[in-house]
Amino acid sequence: MRIGRNITLATTPDRVADEVAAAIRDGLDSVWTNQMPGLWDPLVLLAAAGRVGPTVELGTAIVPTYPRHPVVAATEALTVAAATGAPLTLGLGPSHAWSITDQLGLPYASPAAHSREYLEIVGGLVRGEHVQHRGRFFTVDTELSVPAAPVSLLLSALGPRMLEVARDLTDGTVAVWVRPELVGEVLRPALRDDQRVVVQVLAAVTTDPDGLRERIARDYAAVESMPAYRAVLDRAGLQGPADTLVVGTEEELAREFARFADAGTTDLLVAPLEEPQRVLDVARAVAA
After folding, report:
1. pTM of this prediction?
2. Contact of 38 with 9, CB cutoff 8 Å
3. pLDDT digit string, tens, across residues 101-114
4. Greatest CA span in the chain, whole angstroms?
5. Cα 161 to Cα 167: distance, rounded to the nearest angstrom
6. Which has the least CB within 10 A, 40, 205, 215, 238?
7. What is the CATH number of the domain that holds 232?
8. Cβ distance 212 to 275 under 8 Å?
9. Luciferase-like domain: which residues (predicted)?
10. SS3 sequence of 146-210
11. What is the dihedral of CA 66, 69, 70, 75, to 10 degrees?
12. Number of independent structural domains in the chain
């Protein structure tokens, strides 16, 4: 299992290069950003790292698809990969109706079908192909002159239809608010053996796990009402996102991280809530 760190909530553009340099120094495999409402563009944020080189993977988990034309997404991804010199993983996903429709005024129609068309176009373009596509959502006839760079694709997929799209058109799935049981029983079996299961976890070494769970339950209460996440939480018998936290002593964190590995997680993206260095040290020790 590879270990990465999500830096979205802990950084500004001025600090990105420092965060990436620290990840390389600490022996992490990857650094990830994601699109949060009202915050930085995740790909531009990664570009702020400057010339990184091939020692660490950069990734997005995720970039929403509906607000970005697939040709734009492919162009931006190739540009970031070329500018940083790092392998880039473009994690994509349809996001949620409250963000796409309620905030942006865009139709949130048929997310699985939309994702399939989107990935057919992006996948061809990042492979250097001339893409001719005429579908329900997009009509494209173009190719990119941006120099080829290593870009792989992931899809935010939790349900059966989205997992089918991920299996057919990407290098795997990226998930959040899940427990090891869901990885082993749902995500891993739905994909090919050579595909990735990338899982984001909020984690902390703390003497007050209950207090931390209460804080996360309050801060992330909206997650409970998002249909895709609600379905996954219900399937696992969980009340809300706070039930997916990995918190407690270093020994407790090590046991939980090991359970994710045993369930088939290929990449664990850690977002430390407290004691970040101790959390990352535990994750690296488990991966080793």
Report:
1. 0.95
2. no
3. 999 999 999 999 99
4. 57
5. 10
6. 215
7. 3.20.20.30
8. no
9. 10-266
10. CCCCCEEEEECCCCHHHHHHHHHHCCEEEEECCCHHHHHHHHHHHCCCCCEEEEEEEEEECCCHH
11. -130
12. 1
